[in-house]
Structures are given as structure tokens and as C-alpha cells.
UniProtKB/TrEMBL annotation:
<feature type="transmembrane region" description="Helical">
    <location>
        <begin position="39"/>
        <end position="57"/>
    </location>
</feature>
<keyword id="KW-0472">Membrane</keyword>
<feature type="transmembrane region" description="Helical">
    <location>
        <begin position="77"/>
        <end position="99"/>
    </location>
</feature>
<protein>
    <submittedName>
        <fullName>Permease</fullName>
    </submittedName>
</protein>
<feature type="transmembrane region" description="Helical">
    <location>
        <begin position="272"/>
        <end position="291"/>
    </location>
</feature>
<feature type="transmembrane region" description="Helical">
    <location>
        <begin position="106"/>
        <end position="130"/>
    </location>
</feature>
<feature type="transmembrane region" description="Helical">
    <location>
        <begin position="241"/>
        <end position="260"/>
    </location>
</feature>
<keyword id="KW-0812">Transmembrane</keyword>
<feature type="transmembrane region" description="Helical">
    <location>
        <begin position="297"/>
        <end position="318"/>
    </location>
</feature>
<keyword id="KW-1003">Cell membrane</keyword>
<dbReference type="InterPro" id="IPR053166">
    <property type="entry name" value="UPF0718_permease"/>
</dbReference>
<feature type="transmembrane region" description="Helical">
    <location>
        <begin position="136"/>
        <end position="157"/>
    </location>
</feature>
<feature type="transmembrane region" description="Helical">
    <location>
        <begin position="203"/>
        <end position="221"/>
    </location>
</feature>
<dbReference type="Pfam" id="PF03773">
    <property type="entry name" value="ArsP_1"/>
</dbReference>
<dbReference type="InterPro" id="IPR005524">
    <property type="entry name" value="DUF318"/>
</dbReference>
<comment type="similarity">
    <text>Belongs to the UPF0718 family.</text>
</comment>
<keyword id="KW-1133">Transmembrane helix</keyword>
Length: 321
């Protein structure tokens, strides 16, 4: 399905505007149009479906189902779901919002948000094909461990207190849900569509700004520059630098694999390469900007800090193996 958005970006950039496929501006515009269409499509569809679900099933029942399962099981299910959804970091945010709307505990929700952009079957197959099953296995295991332990650490800080009030104003939403549950299909549809309008209205400009920044980095930061300055394994700062450099380089796990392949071919250590890949896939600046409209700065800072530390530790560990 996502190839349709690729084709839309290609048509708009290279046919309608007449930009060159080899041109940096063309690449940036194509990326911007593709991601604008894809992310807003996902926002509308997922928020609508979650709203419709909540109109049929009360949040109290959802909480009871989640509460009845051990946390390790809920966390494992969230990571498994994240692993089979081929989303980039920004595309994962709509489902993250849906989980929060459904009152699923944030510890479990963050496990999905971390795992979804980092691990997916397409990226794993590409890793095996291009870099071998050993590197693919190392990457997947590292992603699972980071998602599981990272979500536990985030949960320790009780991030629910930093969720924006509009996301789960309990009294207002319970009243709306009661009205929706007691009425017709049309009322349930109206409730779900109102959820879409309220949430998209609050975050749309952050989505546009985030995607625009991602498009600029996608089009104008050369891959060769990344490889050149990270190839010296004797530099202790290469792993932290790779992680910090990866934050603005917005892509998904599949899109960054060629960069990792080029880095390994130029002698960049495996740990440094995987740390960069994780950072690009799971901790992008556009994602941070979009998440800011859902959670406040303290929760966002904890999320970023936990992932930065985790990726640096993974990089150092694999460089020592």
C-alpha cells in the first residue's frame, strides 16, 4: 500500500514539477510529499478506527483486559506488534496516540513506539540479504532488548502525568463514550470522526514541520559524509556521535540499511553502524516534534535520553564483540 505514496511523491516531484531524480531538491520534495500523504493517511485511519473501537467498547473494558495480563506479556505483545508493522518513527505515532486514547499503559505503549520503527520483516530480510544473518540477528536482538528494557525504564518515571490533557480528559471522554455506546451506528461514526478532527487539528502543523525537517536532511545530507567521519574505531566519541547524528537523519530501518552497508564497506565498526541505524530509525527529530503534541517535555526528554543511552551502550557492546 505504501508504494502508492511513493508513486504520488514521484509524480508530484518529477513529473508535475519537473525536478530531477538526481537533484537534492527533487529528492527532498519527493520525500516531503510522500510522507505528508502517508502520515496524514495513517493519522486519519488509525485515530478513526480507535475512536470507533472505543465507541463500541468502553475504555473501562479495555483497561480490564490489559490489567488482567502480566506486564511482561503486554510488553512482549506490543514489541511483537511493532516488529510486524513496517512503520517509520513518525508513522508509528498515530498508533501510539490510539494506544494512549484506549488507556493502554504507557509502559506498554512506549515498547511499541520503540520497536515499530526499528524492527520489521522487510528490514530483517534486507539485512540478511545484504549483510548476513549474523548482523541481522544482532540487530533484531538489540532492538527487542532496547524496546523491552527501555519501556520499563520509562515506566519508572510514571509518564502518564505528562500526557497532554486533551488526549485523555477522562470525564469528558467517558461522557462522550457513554453517549456513543447508547446510540446508533451514525452516532458512533460521528464520535470517531470527531476524534480525528480534534487530534489532527491539534498536531497537524507539528507533523508538517517535522516532515519538512526530515525531507531537508533526507535530500541534502550526503551519505558519504556520514561514512567518512565515523570510520575511525579508535575514537571513543564515534558511537555517541553516530547516535546524535542519526537523530535528524529521518528514515525507516529499511531505508537506512544501504547507509549501514556503505559504512561497513568503508571500515566503520559494526557497533557504530548499528547505533546509527537505530538512532535514524527510532529517534528522529520529526518524530520528537510530533510526539511533543501528545506528551510534555519531561516525558519526551526521558524517552530521548533512554534511547540515546541504550543505543550508545549497544554500539560500544557490539564494537567490543
Amino acid at each position: 500500500m505504501f508504494t502508492l505514496f511513493d508513486e504520488l511523491g514521484n509524480w508530484f516531484s518529477y513529473q508535475l514539477l519537473g525536478l530531477s531524480t538526481e537533484n537534492q531538491l527533487g529528492s527532498a520534495v519527493q520525500f516531503f510529499v510522500m510522507d505528508i500523504a502517508k502520515i496524514f493517511f495513517l493519522l486519519v485511519v488509525i485515530i478513526y478506527l480507535m475512536g470507533l473501537l472505543r465507541a463500541f467498547v468502553s475504555t473501562e473494558k479495555i483497561r480490564e483486559v490489559v490489567a488482567g495480563k502480566p506486564k511482561w506479556m503486554g510488553r512482549s505483545l506490543a514489541i511483537t506488534l511493532g516488529s510486524v508493522t513496517p512503520f517509520c518513527s513518525c508513522s508509528s505515532v498515530p498508533l501510539f496516540i490510539g494506544f494512549v486514547e484506549a488507556r493502554i499503559p504507557l509502559g506498554i505503549t512506549f515498547a511499541f513506539l520503540i520497536a515499530s520503527p526499528m524492527i520489521n520483516e522487510v528490514a530483517v530480510v534486507m539485512l540478511i540479504t545484504l549483510l548476513g544473518w549474523e548482523i541481522a540477528l544482532m540487530y533484531v536482538l538489540a532492538g527487542v532488548v532496547v524496546a523491552y528494557i527501555g519501556s520499563i525504564v520509562i515506566e519508572w518515571f510514571k509518564p502518564e502525568r505528562w500526557v497532554e490533557s486533551y488526549v485523555w480528559d477522562i470525564e469528558m471522554r467517558q461522557q462522550q463514550e457513554t453517549e456513543a455506546l447508547q446510540d446508533s451506528i451514525q452516532r458512533r461514526h460521528s464520535f470517531a470522526w470527531n476524534e480525528v478532527k480534534v487530534i489532527v487539528k491539534r498536531i497537524w502543523y507539528w507533523v508538517v514541520i517535522g516532515i519538512a525537517l526530515g525531507a531537508l536532511f533526507h535530500g541534502y545530507v550526503p551519505e558519504a559524509w556520514v561514512s567518512e567521519y565515523l570510520a575511525d574505531s579508535s575514537n571513543w566519541w564515534s558511537v555517541p556521535a553516530a547516535v546524535l547524528l542519526g537523530v535528524p537523519l529521518y528514515s525507516n530501518a529499511t531505508g537506512v540499511i544501504p547507509i549501514v552497508e556503505a559504512m561497513l564497506n568503508k571500515g566503520v565498526p559494526i557497533g557504530t553502524s548499528l547505533a546509527l541505524m537505530m538512532s535514524i530509525a527510532a529517534l528522529s527529530l520529526p518524530e520528537i516534534l510530533i510526539l511533543r503534541k501528545v506528551i510534555r517535555w519531561p516525558a519526551l526528554a526521558i524517552f530521548v535520553a533512554v534511547l540515546v543511552v541504550a543505543f550508545i551502550l549497544v554500539g560500544y557492546l557490539f564494537n567490543m564483540i
